[in-house]
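Per your request, structure below.
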């Protein structure tokens, strides 16, 4: 369902907004098939309808003739349909070709997998098309343009919105319905205080909604989108902070006292902390030492920047205070990696610790739980297994969550519930731009480590097409002959897997029913392992994927780490937590199926030590024409090893949820804000959220009551108790 605009219910002054919560079926033009169509689009109320914004606009104020439309640029052309034909070059691919004419020339518009267009358009129809103009076979073309049938008297001096529609409601009818909704809503109270709107130069919400649907100019449309974007970030910021207030309601913060164990840990480390690491440690310990507030901090750092060493000081500080800490990792592989690297250092600092995963034998598990409940264990490393009801801490005062975007809000809260008032430290090796950090992790203070303390020998990355795979195979064989090891990464576990299980990234086509259509075969780890055992005969080829039982996964990693396996064929389960310095080559199959963040994380598995690493990304169209967005995206891997720069590019090309996953903020994604272009707006909304909650902690004042209801309405029941919605 679309996000709703709240109908504040806290005073008579706000009663005018009640129309926004009214059933959309009460609007004129809405009945029967159109009402059912709106429900399929997730539209139930007037407010839902007003936030069903156009996906594009036909700008007739800049319409051009066919002759004047410039090749390589997006243009709006008004012309007459001359001929419509439908072709099927492949059984599951339909192409509708529409030939357009005006007094200056001929243009072809091609529509893929939209056979209904052949029934909708007829010779003599006057239409407007908007899309990128290309030239082929002697005339101009558009592929998959937006189009609109025009009445005979339509003017070319206006901007026509193109709303998302479905069967039962045309774009023309949608415009009429939205116009009726705007008329019914008229002017309503604005949830954002007038002072803030004035300071930020924002138009009123009622004006913004009118302008986003029916702008008088594209400039006005941009100002309207800016207002909706501000609201989106502000409400998310308020929701995140109100959620934490609700979680921590009535709990007493724990003031930690760093002491001898922290000092001993500093001496136990085999290296000196960098300035960035030391600054992060100081920020964390300062938070933990404050008896007046509960720590909520994000430790963000690229692969190999030493976040684990920083987190160790927090664990030691909890032990110094006579309390316990828990480190939760998303996989058994990563949890085991932490235990292997951290437990010896903690032992030297006189901090006791243990590892608990789903693969822990029952007798060992029982012993760990008994020691934990008795307070004999200072630190517990584990996976989701630590959330079990029988895992009881004597005095949990610090929760550390690694790769926290892989956990849902509920899991984070469940761990903290085992120690009321416990400080929270979340860590992520996924570099993200500051705008995204503020938007998604706005309820957390942030410490960032940008540079590796030990850069290592580095990684050379090459993007190859399918025909050049032998180059990667040659590099793997060369590494094996030198006594080194290699990874081969595949997007699927088995050939029978449906492509719908893949990350929804550029390169996956979908048919008219929304099913994934594979243009090229996708490599499956199980099949690839069998094939590579023949390619690299004489060497041991292992297999690792997320469906394997926990014990089998751990055995696969150990055999690779010990050198018993020379080539490890895996899915992205090795993206984090697998540290094998002797592995120097990585081959990533179907690289176009992954985002830059994932590819960067994967290649971080090689070149970590004194041996240089080489990463080969085999991708469809890797040697395609210049200017291809998919190719430009992959080429960035060759140009830079800066994870933050790659994250900024990923953000420009893909949605924020594809970088981090949606679960980190309870299933909510951002619809209006442009995280790349709206940096100033995001900073402003973040600062305003902090100030508003300082002024009215639960938004219960008269001035903030509309915001309180807007948060509760948009983000659901979980926030209503604290927000009063």
């Amino acid at each position: 369902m679309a996000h709703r605009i709240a109908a504040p219910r806290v005073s008579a002054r706000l009663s005018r907004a009640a129309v926004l919560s009214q059933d959309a079926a009460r609007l004129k033009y809405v009945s029967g098939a159109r009402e059912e169509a709106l429900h399929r689009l997730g539209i139930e109320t007037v407010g839902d309808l007003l936030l069903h914004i156009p996906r594009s606009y036909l700008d007739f104020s800049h319409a051009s003739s066919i002759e004047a439309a410039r090749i390589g640029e997006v243009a709006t052309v008004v012309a007459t349909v001359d001929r419509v034909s439908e072709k099927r070059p492949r059984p599951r691919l339909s192409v509708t070709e529409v030939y357009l004419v005006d007094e200056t020339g001929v243009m072809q518009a091609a529509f893929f997998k939209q056979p209904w267009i052949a029934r909708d358009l007829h010779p003599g129809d006057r239409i407007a098309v908007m899309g990128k103009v290309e030239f082929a076979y002697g005339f101009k073309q558009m592929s998959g343009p937006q189009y609109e049938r025009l009445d005979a008297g339509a003017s070319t001096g206006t901007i026509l919105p193109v709303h998302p529609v479905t069967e039962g409601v045309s774009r023309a009818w949608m415009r009429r319905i939205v116009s009726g909704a705007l008329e019914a809503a008229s002017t309503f109270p604005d949830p954002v205080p007038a002072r803030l709107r004035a300071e930020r130069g924002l138009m009123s919400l009622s004006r913004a909604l009118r302008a986003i649907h029916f702008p008088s100019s594209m400039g006005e449309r941009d100002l309207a989108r800016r207002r909706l974007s501000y609201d989106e970030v502000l409400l998310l910021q308020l929701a995140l902070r109100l959620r934490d207030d609700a979680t921590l309601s009535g709990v007493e913060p724990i003031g930690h006292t760093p002491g001898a164990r922290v000092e001993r840990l500093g001496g136990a480390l085999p290296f000196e902390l960098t300035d960035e690491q030391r600054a992060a440690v100081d920020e964390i310990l300062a938070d933990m030492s404050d008896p007046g507030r509960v720590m909520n901090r994000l430790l963000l750092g690229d692969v190999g920047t030493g976040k684990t060493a920083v987190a160790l000081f927090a664990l030691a500080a909890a032990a110094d205070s006579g309390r316990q800490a828990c480190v939760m990792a998303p996989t058994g592989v990563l949890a085991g990696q932490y235990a292997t690297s951290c437990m010896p250092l903690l032992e030297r600092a006189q901090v006791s610790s243990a590892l608990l995963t789903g693969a822990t034998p029952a007798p060992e598990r029982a012993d760990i739980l008994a020691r934990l409940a008795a307070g004999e264990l200072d630190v517990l490393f584990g996976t989701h297994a630590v959330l079990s009801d029988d895992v009881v801490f004597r005095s949990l005062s610090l929760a550390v969550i690694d790769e926290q975007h892989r956990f849902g809000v509920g899991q984070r809260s469940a761990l903290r519930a085992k120690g009321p008032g416990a400080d929270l430290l979340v860590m992520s090796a996924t570099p993200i731009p500051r705008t995204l950090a503020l938007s998604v992790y706005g309820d957390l203070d942030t410490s960032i480590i940008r540079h590796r303390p030990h850069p290592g020998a580095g990684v050379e990355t090459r993007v190859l097409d399918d025909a050049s795979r032998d180059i990667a195979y040659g590099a793997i064989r060369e590494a094996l002959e030198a006594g080194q090891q290699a990874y081969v990464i595949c997007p699927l576990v088995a050939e029978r897997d449906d492509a719908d299980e893949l990350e929804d990234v550029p390169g996956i086509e979908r048919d008219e029913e929304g099913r994934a259509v594979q243009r090229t075969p996708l490599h499956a780890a199980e099949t690839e392992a069998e094939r590579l055992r023949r390619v690299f005969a004489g060497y041991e080829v292992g297999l690792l994927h997320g469906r394997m039982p926990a014990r089998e996964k751990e055995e696969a990693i150990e055999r690779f780490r010990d050198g018993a396996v020379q080539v490890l064929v895996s899915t992205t389960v090795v993206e984090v937590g697998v540290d094998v310095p002797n592995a120097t080559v990585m081959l990533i199959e179907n690289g176009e199926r992954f985002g830059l963040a994932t590819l960067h994380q994967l290649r971080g598995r090689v070149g970590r030590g004194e041996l240089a690493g080489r990463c080969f990304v085999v991708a469809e169209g890797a040697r395609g024409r210049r200017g291809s967005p998919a190719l430009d995206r992959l080429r960035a891997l060759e140009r830079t090893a800066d994870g933050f720069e790659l994250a900024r590019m990923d953000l420009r090309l893909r949605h924020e949820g594809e970088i981090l996953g949606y679960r980190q903020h309870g299933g909510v994604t951002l619809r209006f804000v442009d995280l790349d272009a709206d940096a100033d707006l995001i900073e402003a909304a973040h600062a305003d959220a902090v100030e508003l909650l300082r002024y009215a902690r639960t938004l219960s004042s008269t001035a903030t009551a509309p915001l309180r209801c807007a948060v509760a309405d948009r983000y659901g029941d979980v926030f209503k108790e604290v927000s009063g919605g």
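Residues 218-247 form the longest helix (30 residues).

Regards,
D.
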